[in-house]
What does this fold into?
Amino acid sequence: GIGQLVQGMTNPDSRHGLAVPDTPAFRAQVAKMSAWVVQRLGIHWLFVSADGSVHVVAPNCPAKTRLDDH
It folds into this structure.
């Protein structure tokens, strides 16, 4: 989860992401993350659909974007 991701951050120049199922419940949880925390940590969200497709949301996207279904 997010805790393991943060604990493993050792290089400030690396990009980090967390893959989660692309469901309304997970999108709602992701949207609850404070925007400044996501931006500071540079977390990319990878929403994985049932068909295997992946939608990547960059750290600078607003919370509403993290909620929108694609």
Remarks:
- The longest strand covers residues 16-21.
- The chain has four helices and three strands.
- The first helix runs from residue 2 to 7.
- The mean pLDDT is 86.
